[in-house]
Amino acid sequence: MPMSYLSSYQLFNALEKAFTCPARSLTKSRGKNIHRYASIKMRCIISVESTLEFDSCFHFDFQKEIIRFCSQPIRFSYELNGKEHTYVPDFLVQFDCGEFVLYEVKTDEEANSQRFKLEFEAKKLAAQKLLGVDLELIKEKAIRIVPLLKNLKLMHRYSSRKELTEHQKILLSILQKNRDKKIEDLMYLTGFSCQSIFPMVCDLLSRSLFQTDLYSPLNKSTKLGVVCA
């Protein structure tokens, strides 16, 4: 049955299915460099086709408003210059408000080409008409933000699903009793070394228990706050 004739219920099910049965299963092949991203939020491995898509996963993983995401989610048709084409977006994201959004990830050079712009407009129209969802473009410059991306990668590296350690509970307790503290202040109050405190702080940031300005480098001068419940 063409997607244009699907009911709202069927469209919702099609989007739901994308999280368990994506339209494309990425496997290694000649000419393709498949990357595997271990998602903290999704608790699974997400396969992507480029390093740029890989880097975008860090943003999806740690953006609070996003509750889940997947790659190669759904296939649909679009028309361009009188011809029908098929298309699979790079990602499907669901936000905490319940809204679904499809995303295409492109380098700045690719996104600025006239051919891509024409194709993408046709794809956007088809996504809205057939699926009732927005298709949005994420350019490289919005993904590889310095030092935000580096900070997100540090949070990912040190994130843990284990229970908080006693040392982490001490750090959390200090910030709960104070408005905010720099990392060097916490080192002074606890006696923890720089080498030992940074992994703990990154893990607490990844759990959204600590907050800070991630657009600034994480260092001893970083000011931390506790996230209000």
Plain-language structure description:
- Helices cover 40% and strands 23% of the residues.
- By secondary structure, the protein is of the alpha+beta class.
- It has a four-stranded mixed beta sheet. A three-stranded antiparallel beta sheet has the order 9-11-10. The protein has a two-stranded antiparallel sheet with strand order 1-2.
- Helix 2 (51-62) crosses helix 6 (148-158) and helix 6 (148-158) packs across helix 9.
- It is elongated and about 70 Å long.
- The chain starts with 7 loop residues before the first helix and ends with a strand.
List keywords for this structure.
single chain; 229 residues; alpha+beta; four-stranded mixed β-sheet; 9 helices; 11 strands
Distance between the termini: 46 Å
In terms of structural class, how would the helical and strand content be classed?
Answer: alpha+beta
Tally of contiguous helical segments: 9
What is the global morphology? elongated
What is the topology, as strand order, of the major beta sheet?
3-6-7-8
How many extended strands? 11
Low-confidence stretches: none
- Give the helix level as a range of percent: 40-55%
**Percent of residues in β-strands:** 15-25%
Largest sheet: 4 strands, mixed
State mean pLDDT (0 to 100 scale): 93
H/E order of the elements?
A: HEEHEEEEEHHEHHHEHHEE
Q: What does the radius of gyration come to?
A: 21 Å
